[in-house]
Amino acid sequence: MPQDVTAxxxxxxxxxxxxxxxxxxxxxxxGGGFAGAHLIQQLAHAGRTPAAPARSxxxxxxxxxxxxxxxxxxxxAVFHLAAFSSPRRSWEHPDEALLTNIQMTLNVxxxxxxxxxxxxxxxxxxxxxxxxxxxxxxxxxxxxxxxSPYAVSKxxxxxxxxxxxxxxxxxxxxxRPFNHAGPGQxxxxxxxxxxxxxxxxxxxxxxEAVLRTGDTASARDFTDVRxxxxxxxxxxxxxxxxxxxxxxRRTTIGELIxxxxxxxHxxxxxxxxxxxxxxxxxxxxxxxxxxxxxxTGWKPEIPLEQTVRDTLAWWRRRLx
Length: 320
Hints:
By secondary structure, the chain is of the alpha/beta class. It has helices at about 35-45, 65-75, 85-90, 95-115, 150-170, 190-205, 225-235, 255-265, 290-295, 305-320; strands at about 15-20, 25-30, 55-60, 75-80, 120-125, 170-175, 180, 210-215, 220, 225, 240-245, 250, 270. β5 (about 120-125), α5 and β6 form a beta-alpha-beta unit.
């Protein structure tokens, strides 16, 4: 389930939107989630939200409610971020991950098709849909070979978006973000988990922070969430199609721990936790953002060191 910037969970199947009956403005689903809250801030900085927006909660699993909501908002762009977003929990609840993500995406597609056919629809998928791709960095031409129920759901939503774009001449931009991280990220995700453990150890005055992790050699393609949402905004102006959102480099969990150690107020060491080891983990790939860069000029700007520093600072504030 998405987590917002205050680490309060948003009810699954609901989305926070910016509704503005008077003008054509962007509509964001999942605005209370981690990336969604950053996206709303980014849109505001770009002058793309109303000065005093009305806030509404919409049940995205209710097709008629979504249709009415889109009709009321009359958006010029829709950013669909709301999702069952936990790969780990999707193993425990595969039916919820699959059915929820596909149904919400279908409802949004249908609502935009009938109520706002001229709007750009940015569907936020996942780089996990590629699985363990053999050729690195991964481009958009790589086959979708998802390895978790969550990744299957995102691949299905991606293909559904393509089908609507082709069949109904809709402006659907399908984004495939790889791992994103930054301030506000819940401790269910790798950097959020590591940073929260360091901040907790500092707070209780421990002599060291012992980080319990899975395989520290496992690698991810991390991008700062603030760079990611900047890509989302720019992508709304791109041609319909699929685009990776990524840094283009692999970072191991061990390297993340080293970066945290450099910022921590206590020594940091790690222990392997067998419960965190994943046998079906698509964690060794990195993507290419060349297509998105060519279309929009976007490139990641925030170094990983700053992402780690800001995430740790956020967790220190939160735990206090």
